[in-house]
Amino acid sequence: MSHDRLECAAQIRERGFRVTPQRMLILDAICEGKEHTTFDEIYDRVQAKAPGINQATLYRTLDFLCELHLVVSAEIDGRAVYEIAGETPHHHLVCHACGAIQELPDFHFHELRSHLLREHGFKADISHLALTGLCPQCAESER
Amino acid sequence: MSHDRLECAAQIRERGFRVTPQRMLILDAICEGKEHTTFDEIYDRVQAKAPGINQATLYRTLDFLCELHLVVSAEIDGRAVYEIAGETPHHHLVCHACGAIQELPDFHFHELRSHLLREHGFKADISHLALTGLCPQCAESER
DNA sequence: TCCGTTTCTGCAAATTTTTGCAACAGCTAG
DNA sequence: CTAGCTGTTGCAAAAATTTGCAGAAACGGA
Predict the structure, then answer these.
(1) pTM for this predicted structure
(2) pLDDT tens sequence across B72-110
(3) A contact test, residue of B92, B111, B116, B122 with most A CBs within 10 A
(4) Does domain B5-84 have CATH number 3.40.630.30?
(5) Least C-beta-crowded within 10 Å: which of A14, A61, A87, B24?
């Protein structure tokens, strides 16, 4: 999940937006953890390095980075989590009962994606889905 | 998308919760519109009939009804929308550019669902997905 | 029908998220 | 290197959402 600061900066600039220290710090903070990172975690990490950064800025920047697809987010357990966008998308299975999270490779969605494009002309952006349900253990104990 | 008040009430009671006028009114309000309904719309409809009902109650009740799968919700365009849960699930394609919404029948997910169950033992609850992307028109003008 | 238990609701306060605006600061052209 | 244009940020206020708690009310059993 390596993120190339230069690459991100180029992407931002290329689309007519500006590369600011805040944005770079926030990108770094998201990458510090290997996995899903919550708003608060990102905020704390950023604060540690640059105490001046405002929460409103973080909210806006996260939206911005998602918009540009440099970062992906998903709602897990009612709270948004963020992750740097890798080369290949991946998804998650989230157990509604115990909260366990399992990774789900993207190939499961290849067919759906191309079907939607072929049949509906719809260019679906399925970059980071969180599907909820019951993990094997919880499904067992449920009945 | 007919909802049977008796059926809903039975479901609620059956699981050990209580059938209250507030809950029934809120269910009715969700059903009034045929399509996706926002929090504010529901709130207004409920207010029209029973001005006393509190916003906090609405927030809690919507969560509650989703929990019981009597209502499904999805995040569209950054805001939550609610719909009464029908017999067969359905999903939506939401254009990120123009906001157009297209319905997507559930059969597209049959295979995924059974695959997850077979291979991962995961009982996925895919009851109302909103996939974002670009509709044919916007995909065209994008390039 | 009435009672006891436990869930729900309304209210107010706390918390989280969004927004408007003036000052600041990237970036491009000269 | 500088100036100017326009996107960004910080701040404070507004709006949206969640939470704790005491009183109200559903529901099962007597």
Answers:
(1) 0.94
(2) 999 998 899 999 998 899 999 999 989 999 999 999 999
(3) B122
(4) no
(5) A87
